[in-house]
UniProtKB/TrEMBL annotation:
Transmembrane segments: none annotated. It comes from the Bacteria. It comes from Eiseniibacteriota bacterium. Pfam families: HSP20. This is Hsp20/alpha crystallin family protein.
Length: 150
């Protein structure tokens, strides 16, 4: 699985992007121009995600500050991990008014496609200090192994 460095819109990418990443950026731009809004990839409503691959598993880490584990749902279907959740509004202030507000309130969903080597029965998730960690084990047949030449 190739990982591509993400940079906010307008940022400079020091790592060459893959053809797919370039295509997705162009596609986002098409929708941004049409709907007159910022792409969801740069939106604060989309949680930041890191995906790490090791020989025997993938690790996904998602920043979800202010959420509780009961606010998060995970599904894995057709090699796609979908993370959904809801950040609920805090109790409304009785006095004063907002001077400035940027914090997202509402639902979100992130879907990540994985290679077909993930074993769906070996997926574990934990949530600590606002960070969701999902470990997706690779199936035994897909793991890389060294072969001795005789």
């Amino acid at each position: 699985m190739a990982l591509v460095r993400w940079t906010p819109k307008g940022g400079r990418n020091l790592v060459p992007q893959s053809g797919l990443a370039n295509w997705m950026t162009d596609w986002d731009g098409l929708f941004n121009d049409f709907f007159g809004r910022e792409s969801t990839s740069g939106c604060s409503c989309m949680p930041a995600v890191d995906v790490n691959e090791k020989d025997n598993h993938y690790t996904v880490r998602v920043d979800l500050p202010g959420l509780k584990k009961d606010d998060i749902k995970l599904t894995f279907e057709n090699d796609v991990l979908t993370i959904t959740g809801e950040r609920k509004a805090e109790k409304e202030e009785k006095e004063g008014r907002f001077f400035h507000s940027e914090r997202f309130v509402g639902t979100f969903a992130r879907s990540l496609r994985f290679p077909s080597d993930v074993d769906p029965s070996q997926i574990d998730a934990s949530f600590h200090d606002g960070v969701l960690e999902v470990k997706l084990a690779k199936s035994e047949t897909a793991m890389v192994r060294q072969i001795e030449v005789k």
